[in-house]
TrEMBL record, chain A:
Residues with site note (Important for dimerization): F156
Homology family: Belongs to the TRAFAC class TrmE-Era-EngA-EngB-Septin-like GTPase superfamily. Septin GTPase family.
Signal peptide: none
Lineage: Eukaryota, Metazoa, Chordata, Craniata, Vertebrata
CDD domains the UniProt entry points to: CDC_Septin (cd01850)
GO cellular component, one term: spindle
Subcellular location: Cell projection, Cilium membrane; Cleavage furrow; Cytoplasm, Cytoskeleton, Spindle; Midbody
Domain (Septin-type G) ranges: 34-306
Source organism, top-level taxon: Eukaryota
Record-linked InterPro entries: G_SEPTIN_dom, P-loop_NTPase, Septin, Septin2
TM region positions: none
Identification of the protein by name: SEPT2 protein
GO biological process, one term: cell division
Keywords carried by this UniProt record: Cell cycle, Cell division, Cell membrane, Cell projection, Cytoplasm, Cytoskeleton, GTP-binding, Membrane, Mitosis, Nucleotide-binding
From TrEMBL, chain B:
Domain Septin-type G: 58-331
Entry protein name: Neuronal-specific septin-3
Species annotation: Centropus unirufus
Region (Disordered): 328-350
Ranges of compositional bias, category Acidic residues: 341-350
Pfam families: Septin (PF00735)
Length: 309, 350
């Protein structure tokens, strides 16, 4: 027999502090010890600044020995999947970050098959997780599922290309898509606004589901609410990446040096880089949860319905 | 929301809760990395803060079982632990009620809130345990109940369309009440703990400890510890689940010195030295429940609630539940008990 009493039952005759309010601290302590993992996929044509941006975001050099292939070599190339993992620690908190790169995407003359490899990769990670989750020994399941995909849109066009639309529609039920306009320093502020609006319209027109930032909860402080509003209003983010330190206005900044001035990566007036990074960090957990609760569960129920293990 | 003196006590105790302001990436930090050379501050540590806030908002389940002969003060102790009328004693149970002929399992749920954290607490009482003339196998209904909760969780987990947060009715902690005879454990105590320590976290507790002097208490505890060890009974915190040296050091001290906790429970308040305290009034003095020189209630409370609450749940989920699941899978030829059949799934949801 099980009785349920209505909420908030403390006997007013024996007031006092029990101590279970300390539970979040206990969880905190365990989380810090465990650290956590995150997998980010980057997709976009060559030369859009993907690698530079990733390096800028995490202040590392994930691609130290890179050789950039010439055009002739790219003709025959199919899409590759390259995953690099790096461990980043800050104030005792460990993040094991895996960046999945997709060189070759969009390079071929005929790109018709270029997203098959990528979709297979995403499905394979779901498949592996499903297998591990159903197994006997579950103590050390590794989560390699793709939690977020940065999709790079070229700033040189007039909006989404057909390939962009087709690809995003093919993966929007499998992964959280964050569209990013790269090399934003080729656009003036007005051109950027126009391009953003154009892209958002096209996303809606084609029914593409991109990742939606959850609204700030009512009990958050005003700063956080304002920050969330600003982030939501800036999508898709228009970014510039760089790991070069340039001298500007008497201090060293990361940026790009042109004869007409310095584009500062971390200057919110120059581009949305900081917004992108803030969004990623403050929503890392939500990105993981949506992957687990929505995309993975969809995959799992489809898979189980089809039968077999 | 409680008014008046409660708030100030909460505030004083709240200093345990470190309120961290939201971090904003401003000042570049010194490079600190395992593979990476950082040139600034990213803000990864704020993720942990987000998780903590999330835990606070979602609240959590905690299921505690009490086992022991009637009259050992189980219900009172649970009320004292949670400073609320949460046990069977407080939900219309009549003290003159007859002792049941078999062991009954009675689960009572409450939602209590503290410092913005909501806890859905379920107290599972086991009246009738150890009270019969013939107590053979009286732990079986208890073991059955515990396994039924694992089964319930497992069925939900293998569902095709499963709930986002699977309701957790599994027993996270079982307080086993030892009678303060001063001599040794009873055969029933050993049998129960031997069987059940393999499926649930058992915390042995010496009840009504105000019947022993300090020396008697110390000797009894030592004897009980020895007996448990000799009989290979692994009570919580189990040695083999210590995660690192820090845990081991902390838990060794608890296992070898503090446990089993000798406790006294009370839900009545008395005035002692100008303070209101929970206690028992006797002609020879007032026994203060939260006074460490009188009994070890405060140690038990801190252990179960303030420091090891999350760990109790994790050991239940990662160890006991997984053991049950593995056994079920093995019995079923490596397959989960519920396959893909929609009809079966519908049945299990009844």
């Amino acid at each position: 027999s099980f009785q349920q009493q209505p909420a908030q039952f403390t006997n007013p005759e024996t007031p006092g502090y029990v101590g279970f309010a300390n539970l979040p601290n206990q969880v905190h302590r365990k989380s810090v010890k465990k650290g956590f993992e995150f997998t980010l996929m980057v997709v976009g044509e060559s030369g859009l600044g993907k690698s530079t941006l990733i390096n800028s975001l995490f202040l590392t050099d994930l691609y130290p020995e890179r050789i950039i292939p010439g055009a002739a070599e790219k003709i025959e190339r199919t899409v590759q999947i390259e995953a690099s993992t790096v461990e980043i620690e800050e104030r005792g908190v460990k993040l094991r970050l895996t960046v999945v790169d997709t060189p070759g995407y969009g390079d071929a003359i005929n790109c018709r098959d270029c997203f098959k490899t990528i979709i297979s990769y995403i499905d394979e990670q779901f498949e592996r997780y499903l297998h591990d989750e159903s197994g006997l020994n579950r103590r050390h399941i590794i989560d390699n599922r793709v939690h977020c995909c940065f999709y790079f849109i070229s700033p040189f066009g007039h909006g989404l290309k057909p390939l962009d639309v087709e690809f995003m529609k093919a993966i929007h039920n499998k992964v959280n898509i964050v569209p990013v306009i790269a090399k934003a320093d080729t656009l003036s502020l007005r051109e950027r606004e126009r391009l953003k609006k154009r892209i958002l319209d096209e996303i809606e027109e084609h029914g593409i589901k991109i990742y939606h930032l959850p609204d700030a909860e009512s009990d958050e402080d005003e700063d956080f609410k304002e920050q969330t509003r600003l982030l939501k209003a800036s999508i898709p983010f228009c970014v510039v990446g760089s790991n070069q330190l340039i001298e500007a206005k008497g201090k060293k900044v990361r940026g790009r040096l042109y004869p007409w001035g310095v584009v500062e990566v971390e200057n919110p007036e120059h581009n949305d880089f900081l917004k992108l990074r803030t969004m990623l960090i403050t929503h890392m957990q939500d990105l993981q949860e949506v992957t687990q609760d929505l995309h993975y569960e969809n995959f799992r129920s489809e898979r189980l319905k089809r039968g077999g293990r | 929301p409680c008014a008046g003196p409660v708030e100030s006590r909460n505030e004083a105790a709240m200093s345990e809760l470190v309120q961290e302001p939201r971090q904003k990436p401003v000042v570049p930090m010194k490079p600190m990395g395992i593979n990476a050379n950082l040139l600034g501050y990213i803000g990864i540590d704020t993720i942990i803060e987000q998780m903590r806030k999330k835990t606070m908002k979602t609240g959590f389940d905690f299921n505690i079982m009490v086992v022991g002969q009637s009259g050992l003060g189980k219900s009172t102790l649970v009320n004292t632990l949670f400073k609320s009328q949460v046990s069977r004693k407080s939900s219309g149970w009549n003290r003159e009620e007859k002792i049941p002929k078999t062991v009954e399992i009675k689960a009572i749920g409450h939602v209590i809130e503290e410092g913005g954290v909501k806890m859905k607490l379920t107290v599972i009482d086991t009246p009738g345990f150890g009270d019969q003339i013939n107590n053979e196998n009286c732990w079986e209904p208890i073991e059955k109940y515990i396994n039924e909760q694992y089964e319930k969780f497992l069925k939900e987990e293998v569902n095709i369309a499963r709930k986002k947060r699977i309701p957790d009715t599994r027993v996270h902690c079982c307080l086993y009440f030892i009678s303060p005879t001063g001599h040794s454990l009873r055969p029933l105590d050993l049998e129960f703990m031997k069987h059940l320590s393999k499926v649930v976290n058992i915390i042995p507790v010496i009840a009504k400890a105000d019947t022993m002097t300090l020396e008697e208490k110390s000797e009894f505890k030592q004897r009980v510890r020895k007996e448990l060890e000799v009989n290979g009974i692994e009570f919580y915190p189990q040695k083999e689940f210590d995660e690192d040296l820090e845990d081991k050091t902390e838990n060794d001290k608890i296992r070898q010195e503090s446990m089993p906790f000798a406790v006294v429970g009370s839900d009545k308040e008395y005035q002692v030295n100008g303070k209101r305290v929970l206690g028992r009034k006797t002609p020879w003095g007032i026994i203060e429940v939260e006074n460490l020189t009188h009994c070890e209630f405060a140690l038990l409370r801190d252990f179960v609630i303030r420091t090891h609450l999350q760990d109790l749940k994790e050991v239940t989920h990662n160890i006991h539940y997984e053991t049950y699941r593995a056994k079920r899978l093995n019995d079923n030829g490596g397959l989960p008990p519920m396959a893909v059949e929609t009809e079966e799934n519908n049945e299990s949801n009844l």
